[in-house]
């Protein structure tokens, strides 16, 4: 049985706006971030997409986005969906980040020296969290899962059968439509509800 689920990044935050590194630390959604989440809700309503349950990382920016995008308050929080911990780099300017490796390993173990996480740990805990959510989920309607840019990138680039290299970083409130069947994940599409454009479409998986 093929299960469909939607994986979405949170809306713009104050740290995003200030171009600061934001992982384990948190900052509130900006006015634009709220508008982005509302745009996601408009898309789901226009497409007639209803969710059996809504999941989010435990971080405020993701929970608030989940509530706005779904119109629900019964958000189920999972620590496994949290963003990567950047250790001593938290709150610093983004230009201090090292280059991302294009082989799927992200930042590797660069931030471990500074008290943060390595990319493998992030991808494995997000994979575990999403797999557990889907194993609990037997309803016909899909779940919505709200997480973070780095966490989502590590997950889909390493576990989806189809893994496109996007020209830019994952946009705020980008919506990943994904499938799960026989223990395997695949990516159907990536939609930006703000610009109302598909960033990726997988015709073979649709």
From TrEMBL:
The active site is at 10 (tele-phosphohistidine intermediate), 83 (proton donor/acceptor). Substrate binds at residues 9-16, 61. It comes from the Bacteria. Gene3D superfamilies: Phosphoglycerate mutase-like. One of its GO terms (molecular function) is phosphatase activity. GO terms for cellular component: cytoplasm. This is Histidine phosphatase family protein. It comes from Streptococcus hillyeri.
